[in-house]
Amino acid sequence: MSTVAQKKGFLAVLWDYLTTVDHKKIAILYLTSGGFFFLVGGIEAMIIRIQLAVPDNNFVSAGLYNELLTMHGTTMIFLAAMPLLFGFMNAIVPLQIGARDVAFPFLNSLGFWLFFFGGVFLNLSWFLGGAPDAGWTSYASLSIASEGHGIDFYVLGLQISGAGTLISGINFLVTIINMRAPGMTYMRMPLFTWSTFVASALILFAFPPLTVGLFLMMFDRMFGANFFDASMGGNTIIWEHLFWIFGHPEVYILILPAFGIFSEIFATFSRKRLFGYAAMVFATVLIGFLGFMVWAHHMFTVGLGPTANAIFAVATMAIAVPTGVKIFNWMLTMWGGSISFTTPMLYAVAFIPSFTAGGVTGVMLASAAADYQYHDTYFVVAHFHYVIIGGVVLGLLAGTHFYWPKMFGTMLNEFLGKITFWLFLIGFHATFFIQHFLGLMGMPRRIWKFLPGQGLDMPNLISTVGAFFMAVAVIVLLVNIVITQVKNVRVGNDPWGDGRTLEWAIPSPPPFYNFKQLPLVRGLDPYWIEKMEGNTKMTPAEPLSDIHMPNNSFIPFVMSLGLFIAAFGAMYQVSWRASEGESFVWALPVLIIGMLITIGAMAVRSLKDDHGYHIHKEDLLDDEEGGRE
Amino acid sequence: MATQQSTSANPKVNYKYRRKKAKQEMRQHVTSFALMIFMTLIAFIAVMAGFDKIYVYPILLVLAAMQVVLQLYYFMHMSHKGHGTVALFLYSGVLVAFITVLTFVTIVWW
């Protein structure tokens, strides 16, 4: 975006987005592609619910059902929830800490494109002989026996997008450590920044085990190794350990940024400082730390023995303590506040009981002995949808409404927003509350159909009806977005009127260099402090001077494209049983060409100096508002 | 890291200071290098002397850990200022990995 508004052709805009290294544009890329995958995962969920609406249904075949449930879980976690959260992190965190961009803009773009190509690769499986069908956990005993290339798509797709996630996580760590504005100490960082920081640290430590697991799986399936094949001296349980050592921190990677978004919303719309800020920070860090000590609670019925089960049960229950601290702090933030029930605030208020319900069933599941009853039933399905929808998705929807003006400069319609909220909330509880009872009645998860006359008919129908409410809610949201963008009514710096943190001190959307002069931060909620003292602007911490900016680059796209191509080669060089001995002579060359493209792009990046450019002081002064000198 | 350079405006002071620092650092490098060679020798001797494996394994592990610490602090500059956050992340990573491994060898694969 230039400082002067100008009309650009479609191709110019497309090229701009393909090459951008601006965190705000990458945020929009994350938001749109994450939103697209969210819709794909949602459609898969709707097909699942239609299949289970009535007993003995034949809407989809058993094999297709397995693919649907696998892809629903995988898509929602890796390709929808995480990218959407990365979208908000990219859009907001650099603004909240008063930085002009992330520490490594090039890597930021690379992280996005790796995620994007990994996600596209995974979803192409639908059109190339069948999607993965071993569940999103892809337990090795099942997945190494799975015919066709489905699991290969899973392994390679997640490997590529996982690399992107790891890169982005490290980028945010470095950004938050090094690029805070003058005066922005750790204990003055807004809670969304804090939770991004902790979630990024979790990514740093949790993704390597997944990478290792996927790597071993790749060798088992594509290069003739036997890490998980017990008959060849391997151990199939190793995959479960590796997966859950990653998988449990992963759910905290999802929920912590959502907690952060809610913390901002509670403080903003209660017009109060967040209650117990220090305790909130401590609780966030503690949840992050404990997240690594509990993975085996997903494996209570594997047969680890009573000692392991007991210790992991206690460790799991311990997480309820910091989470409880947070819940009470949010409630006490509202206590005595001057609350306005805007759409984001409605989501935040609804989040507390919804998420707490999921937390309570979490503690129930944590009791190892009782878990033998709940294991693999719809009770588990109900539990994790309560925490992930009641926590993460409500957070994402709240964040969409809350940060939309900052990202796009327009305000989503509040009336339609509230319709979305009520439809979604009612639909969510209708769908999943009753699944607790289905589980307790003994309905196993991941089944394709159930028989009539077992007391499962009505609850399943109710659950499906609820799912349609959620689908309608999402459609209303899309309509809202289209209407808002077509009307295109621009808003100012602080459209909610009660913004507390730095991002609300600059225009919406911010200029591409964010801050003309880096702001001086004088405490927690710096913009609120300035407003309370009658200032309309932040006090600058530096004189107006040239700003150094990075150049756009097409290289991240090419690097990721190379891996995308190489993945096809790696996959088709094995003729898997279901492909009827078809041999693909082109596979190995494609693998090599793909790798050469990636390595070539890396070489170009390494050998060609790119020093970026400067925005000159004079141009900044020309820019409408003009800096203070 | 840029923080290691003296910010003094006087180039002479700067030069003298850097000379002194460099000399100090060289001594540390040589000392730790000698120590590392010495420890490697001990490791080889311990294996070749044919001690019982129960004694050799812990000796090798302890020597390896010491070598890593020397490497990090004297060759990868963690002894310098401004590495607090790096150290924090390194140690939390080590702690998490240690607890995970400990869990496996004690309660999971009892």
TrEMBL record, chain A:
Subcellular location field: Cell membrane
Q: Which SUPFAM superfamilies match?
A: Cytochrome c oxidase subunit I-like
Q: What is the topology of this protein in the membrane according to its UniProt annotation?
A: Multi-pass membrane protein
Gene3D superfamilies given in the database record: 1.10.287.70, Cytochrome c oxidase-like, subunit I domain
Entry's Gene Ontology cellular component terms: plasma membrane
Give the chief site where it resides.
membrane
Q: Tell me the Pfam families matching this sequence.
A: COX1
Listed transmembrane segments: 27-48, 68-93, 105-128, 153-179, 191-219, 242-262, 274-296, 308-332, 344-366, 378-398, 419-441, 461-483, 554-572, 584-604
Q: Does the keyword ATP-binding apply?
A: no
Family to which this protein belongs: Belongs to the heme-copper respiratory oxidase family.
Specify the protein name: Cytochrome c oxidase subunit 1
Q: Which organism is it from?
A: Jeotgalibacillus proteolyticus
Q: What is the lineage of its organism?
A: Bacteria, Bacillati, Bacillota, Bacilli, Bacillales
Automatic annotation (TrEMBL), chain B:
One GO CC term on file: plasma membrane
Q: Which InterPro entries match?
A: Cyt_c_oxidase_su4_bacillaceae, Cyt_c_oxidase_su4_prok
Indicate yes or no for the key word Membrane: yes
Identify the Pfam families for this entry: COX4_pro
The answer on whether this UniProt entry bears the keyword Protease reads no
User: Which residue ranges traverse the bilayer?
Assistant: 30-49, 55-76, 88-109
What compartments host this protein? Answer: Cell membrane
Q: How is this protein positioned relative to the membrane?
A: Multi-pass membrane protein
Superkingdom per UniProt: Bacteria
Q: Keywords assigned by UniProt?
A: Cell membrane, Membrane, Transmembrane, Transmembrane helix
| NCBIfam families with a match to the protein in the record | CoxD_Bacillus
Official protein name in the record: Cytochrome c oxidase subunit IVB
